[in-house]
Specification:
The structure holds two protein chains of two kinds.
Chain A lengths: L4 H8 L2 H8 L3 H30 L19 H7 L2 H32 L6 H9 L6 H11 L6 H10 L15 H26 L3 H9 L4 H29 L3 H6 L11 H10 L4 H31 L1
Helix pairs in contact in A: 5-9, 5-11, 9-11, 11-14, 13-14
Chain B lengths: L1 H23 L2 E7 L2 H17 L2 E7 L1 H13 L7 E5 L3 H6 L7 H7 L8 H8 L11 E4 L3 E6 H4 L2 H11 L9 H11 L2 E3 L2 E7 L8 H13 L19 H17 L9 H9 L3 E7 L3 H6 L8 E5 L9 E2 L3 E5 L6 H11 L2 H10 L6 H4 L11 H8 L2 E2 L7 H16 L6 H18 L4
Parallel strand pairs in B: 1-2, 1-3, 7-8, 10-12
Antiparallel strand pairs in B: 3-11, 4-11, 5-8, 5-9, 6-7
Helix pairs in contact in B: 2-15, 10-11, 10-18, 18-19
The chains are: A mainly alpha, B alpha/beta.
Chain lengths: 315, 440
């Protein structure tokens, strides 16, 4: 068992194989190592993407595979972009995205700032706060439907206690004006801890020496917050926004459990709408075009955002 | 030469070894929704297992996911199910896409005739194209939307007197939809035994088929037609007729005035829960729940009564439910599956099916003189099955259903637009679907 690991590996290699490998360049060996990963990526990412693009120009329906598949050009794209119902789902998604990010950043940062202070029971509180994000979205959706129940729901009773209104006089998931907010509340409850953790990492990465220097310069706490804390946490915060933004753009399970897209189509987000087109109506070609449009939208927005994030990091 | 002989003998022995059990005993999987009747079928099928030697397995999926899960299975040519008790609306797609095997030859060979079954169930569950003798399923479970009511509340003298004074008639099961709304209104928000109760639990579910299965019970009875009876796929003026608009307005009015708070996404199970927990005086639901209601400790026995969907100004109909049993064409055990259907079609098995809580569609069972009095809900079941109407069973039924779910829910629950706009929009959606299908 003497010698280095490399020597032992070389000795263990059968002479025939060793002779074959000896003849290969470093670049070739590198390719041999990387090839399986590249093949896997091509098979599970790139090929389906190309196939989806191809399908998006056809009238293919996966449940009617025996029917002739016709090339329909840009018809699917035209129908999607001129469909007022799809624009309504886009609006619902934008509302959900904006307000969940707004509240999660605001509350997440505030919680991180509080947790970052040294106090008794700090770890216990951190554990309690992060509990919601450890639950399954389906479970969260299910138990919030009970919390929102007008007759027995705790949420309604809490609101009634605070406002004096009758608990059964409003239905969070049954009224058009309240349903979009009901999903924002649940998603914020569940995912604010995630933003908090990232912000906490940012806050803890700021060296104490910077604050000490600011103290020496007699900078107020308020000034320290705006000129040290916020700029140094900003890249972390932007990263959290990116993760949550991408996740919430494709939000499905939680909302399906809570409202099923209703009342009417008030909370029908794009992913729910897309699922209905693809796997309930089985309009595969149409749904492929829809998926491509969403992919381009997310990819485009994310690229712009990442550029902005890099600029902030460079400062 | 010797080794060749040994190989031949070994091959033959192996072939016999594999072939013999499959000819004698197969493992059959029956797919259906997860609900009370499915449990009754498990019990019933023990007789088949004992007689045939085949082993039965069951794949039951809850209703909200049933269509998604099973249609995925069929569309992918999956071999999970040998027998499928699929929803009536799937029959067109399943027949045209080759998911089910055609049963005409089998029926002829085994002497099974569709004349022995309730005509509406044959049309609804077995035929494609409709009203032609092409059979893809054996009627397995007759079902229809009907109503359950709190008979004990209806019989309270003080409530009867108050109702009579207010509406000028006795508090009895309603004969018309207008009367039904009066009763629901009467009970809405009322204190009974110290609890606030509500009028009616109706179907409002958005995700699968709920609100469509509910609203059609009003639409049909106000004059809604799926198409011009003389010109197929001619929708304008039938789907959105003045009567249909009135029917849709009625359903919204019923939802607005007389349902429990928070019932904006309710289907079968939520309606059952509301009724069994004593929240509502009336419950819209498929007939399959009636055995469970009758046996319930809180509301069962004499406390509950049953009545068919009431008539409207445009007619007297009720939404058909129920399913037929089919053999999946991708199954490797088709012979054994057919054997099951042959066994299931026998009158004595159908009689036992009814006893266990399954709604037989065999005329010999339902036309038996003792049938109507065999259960408190048996007569209502018969009356309801006589007035059924079903949703589209076209191969594109899912497109048609989802369009209706959206249009109706947007109007009834979300209160967006008018009833006329909702039905005009539905005509537009359905026309587009039929154009895509090449039927217009």
């Amino acid at each position: 068992m003497s010698g280095t690991v490399m020597e032992r590996a070389a000795n263990a290699t059968p002479p025939k194989l060793a002779r074959q490998i000896k003849g290969l360049s470093d670049k070739t060996i590198a390719w041999i190592f990387v090839a399986p990963t590249i093949f896997l990526l091509l098979a599970v990412n790139i090929f389906p993407l190309i196939w989806t693009i191809r399908l998006s120009f056809t009238n293919f329906r996966v449940n009617r595979a025996n029917l002739e598949t016709k090339f329909v050009g840009l018809r699917n794209y035209e129908r999607i972009l001129t469909d007022s119902d799809i624009w309504l789902t886009m609006q619902a998604t934008a509302h959900f995205l904006f307000w969940t990010l707004f509240f999660q950043v605001l509350i997440g940062f505030a919680l991180a700032w509080l947790i970052n202070r040294k106090f008794k029971g700090n770890d216990l509180w951190t554990t309690i706060i992060v509990l919601p994000m450890m639950l399954s979205p389906a479970v969260v959706g299910n138990f919030w439907t009970f919390l929102y129940q007008p007759q027995i729901g705790l949420f309604n009773y809490a609101i009634a206690f605070l406002t004096g209104a009758d608990p059964s006089s409003f239905s969070m998931i049954g009224e058009v004006s309240l349903a979009p907010w009901s999903i924002v509340i649940v998603d914020t409850w569940m995912w604010t801890p995630f933003v908090m953790l990232i912000c906490l990492a940012g806050l803890r990465s700021i060296p104490d020496s910077i604050y000490e220097a600011a103290e020496c310069d007699r900078a107020s706490k308020w000034r320290q917050f705006w000129t040290i804390t916020v700029p140094m946490v900003l890249p972390f915060l932007m990263l959290a926004v990116l993760f949550r933004g991408i996740e919430n753009f494709k939000m499905f399970d939680l909302v399906v459990q809570l409202t099923g897209g209703g009342p009417g189509s008030t909370t029908e987000l794009t992913s729910i709408n897309l699922k209905r087109e693809a796997f309930e109506k089985w309009r595969t070609g149409y749904a492929s075009a829809y998926a491509i449009i969403l992919f381009v939208t997310v990819f485009g927005l994310a690229s712009i955002y990442v550029k902005a994030l890099n600029k902030v990091k460079e400062r | 030469m010797k080794s060749t002989k040994i190989l031949a003998v070994a091959t033959l022995a192996a072939a016999c070894g594999f072939a013999a059990p499959s000819a004698k005993a197969d493992d059959l999987t029956l797919c259906w929704a997860a609900w009370d009747p499915a449990n009754a079928l498990v019990e019933l099928s023990k007789d088949f297992e004992a007689k045939s030697g085949h082993k039965m397995s069951f794949e039951f999926v809850p209703w909200p996911n049933f269509a998604d899960r099973m249609l995925n299975e069929l569309n992918s040519g999956g071999q999970l199910c040998d027998l499928m008790i699929g929803d009536s609306q799937w029959i067109g797609g399943a027949a045209e896409n080759g998911h089910y095997i055609k049963l005409n030859d089998f029926f002829d060979k085994e002497g099974i005739t569709m004349d022995d079954f309730i005509p509406a169930t044959v049309t609804g569950y077995s035929e494609w194209p409709k009203n032609t003798p092409n059979y893809w399923a054996l009627p397995a479970f007759g079902d229809v939307v009907g109503w359950t009511y709190r008979k004990d509340w209806f019989s309270r003298p003080e409530l009867r007197a108050e109702y009579k004074e207010k509406y000028g008639r006795e508090l009895e099961p309603p004969k018309t939809l207008a009367e039904l709304k009066d009763i629901a209104e009467f009970f809405q928000g009322r204190e009974i035994d110290g609890t606030t109760v509500y009028g009616a639990a109706i179907y409002t579910e958005r995700g699968s088929e709920g609100i469509t299965m509910g609203v059609t019970n009003a639409l049909y009875n106000y004059g809604f037609e799926y198409e011009n009876p003389n010109k197929p796929y001619d929708l304008e003026g039938f789907v959105n007729s003045a009567g249909a608009v009135e029917g849709l307005e009625f359903y919204k009015a019923l939802y607005d005035c007389c349902t429990p708070p928070g019932s904006s996404d309710w289907y079968m199970s939520e309606d059952i829960d509301a009724y069994k927990s004593g929240q509502v005086a009336l419950q819209m639901n498929f007939a399959f729940i009636w055995p469970g209601v009758n046996a319930d400790a809180n509301v069962g026995g004499d406390k509950s009564g049953y009545f068919p969907n009431p008539a409207g100004p445009g007619g007297h109909f009720a939404q058909l439910g129920g399913q037929g049993i089919s053999v999946v064409s991708y199954s490797d055990s088709q012979d054994a599956a057919l054997e099951y259907i042959k066994w299931f079609a026998q009158p004595e098995i159908q009689a036992k099916w009814w006893e266990l809580g399954g709604y037989s569609a065999l005329r010999a069972v339902v036309e038996d003189p003792g049938f109507a009095s065999s259960q408190p809900y048996a007569q209502t079941f018969l009356d309801s099955m006589a007035i059924v109407k079903d949703f589209w069973a076209e191969p594109a039924y899912a497109d048609l259903l989802l369009a209706m779910q959206k249009r109706v829910h947007d109007y009834v629950i979300a209160g967006q637009g008018t009833a006329k706009e909702a039905l005009d929009g539905l005509v537009q959606d359905w026309t587009e679907t039929f154009e895509d299908e090449g039927k217009m």
